[in-house]
Amino acid sequence: MYEDYLSKALSCIITAKQALNNYETMKIRDMKNIAAYNMQQSIEYLIKYKIYNSGNYTKKSQIYDHNIDRMIKKYCDPFGIQVPVKLRKNANIYTLWEAESRYDSDFSVRIDTLYATICIVEEWLIETKPYYRRKLDQVNKKLGVNP
Question: Do residues 49 and 62 lie in contact, with contact meaning Cβ atoms separated by under 8 Å?
Fold first, then answer.
């Protein structure tokens, strides 16, 4: 159920990697913002996938919240869903990426922070569904990046 959320998370990771690849080549700062937005989205999709498939979410409606910290506290913690420590610790920062990366002209995320976030989210996606390791390996090979 909600398998498409994992596909969406993967797509966001790929888009973030492509954006960073473009940033490294062209040094257009907004490419980092595109990566930040997509990483926030990938985290959100993974969290929602885990919530919906936990067996504890019984509402008929979907969650329309984008606040990662709030979703962790409201759903993940009570449902016993494990969230990687660094994602949990930086949840408020990732939440800001959703809007700030698109609307604040002065917004910028350090490139090492983006790469570190990608690694954490990739590991979490693979832990969730090992099938995605092969997909990510293919993407990394095509982009010429290390996992």
Answer: no
Tens of pLDDT, residue by residue over 105-118, are 888 899 999 999 99
**Token reading at 13:** 């990771």
> At 67, which CATH number?
1.20.120.330
How far apart are alpha carbons 53 and 33 in whole angstroms? 30
If one counts the domains in the chain, the total is: 1
Radius of gyration (C-alpha) of the chain in whole angstroms: 15
> Which residue range is the domain that position 91 belongs to?
3-143
How far apart (Å, rounded) are the C-alpha atoms in residues 58 and 13?
A: 29
